[in-house]
Design a protein that fits this description.
Elements: E1 14-18, H1 23-34, E2 38-43, H2 48-58, E3 63-66, H3 72-86, E4 91-94, H4 109-137, E5 140-145, H5 149-152, H6 158-178, E6 183-190, H7 196-201, H8 205-214, H9 224-234, E7 245-248
Parallel strand pairs: 1-2, 1-4, 2-3, 4-5, 5-6, 6-7
Amino acid sequence: MTQTATFHDLKDTSVFITGGGSGIGAALTDGFLAQGAKVAFIGRSDASGFVTDMTDKHGAAPLFIQGDITEIETLKAAMSQAAEANGPITTLVNNAANDKRHSTEEVDSDFWDWMIAINMKAYFFACQAVADGMKQAGGGSIINFSSISYMMGNAGYPIYTAANSGINGMTRSLAREFGPDRIRVNALAPGWVLTQKQKDMWVTEDGLAAHLDRQCLKDTLDPQDIVGGVLFLASNMSKMMTGQAMVIDGGVVVTG
C-alpha cells in the first residue's frame, strides 16, 4: 500500500477485522499493520499465504483465525482469541459481507436466513462481543461496513440492500447505547470497489461504464481507496464522531 498519513494513536492497538484476508479486508489488514497496529482477522478461506506476505512486508504477522462468521460461537471465540493474543480489541471492523445476486421470486427461507446471517446478524453479535472489552479499555471504535447499493435503490440483491440499510439503523442505535462508555460506532458505505471478486463475477464493460457515468470522479475505486477512511474512523482524529455514515464512492450518492 502507499501510506499517505500516519495515525500515531493506532500503534500497538488491538484491531479485529472480519474478512480481513481478501478484497477490501486485505487492504485494511495491510493498512492497520502499516500503522503499527496488532491485527487479527477471521475468514473462511485459508489466508496463510497472505499472512506470510504481510509478515514479510511489515515485519509483524497478523493473527489469522479461520472460521465462518455466520457461526456466532465461532465468531465470538475468534474475538476472544484475538483479545488474548493482542490485548482488548479497541477497533472492530465489520467488513465481511456477501452481495450474491438474487431475485425476489427465487428467495426461500434458508437463503434469506443465510444472507441476513452474513450481512447483518454477524455484525450485531460482533458488536455485542466487543463492547465489554472496549468499555474496560476506556473506549473504542466500531466500523460497520454498509454499501451505497441501498441508497441507489439497486435491483438484483434485495436482501443485501435491506441488510445494508439495516446496518445504518443498528449503527445509530448502538452509537447511542455505547456512547457513555466512549465507544464510537460508525458506518462506512463504499461505492463499487473493484476487488478481484467483483471483477470475476459482476463487472461488465457496459455496467462499469454506466456506473462511472454516475460518479462525479471518473476513476474506478480500488480497495486502497477505502483504507484511509477506516483508519480515520478508528483513530482519535474522529473521537467525537459517532452514529454517522461515511460514504466513499467517487460521488455517486449525496448524503445530508
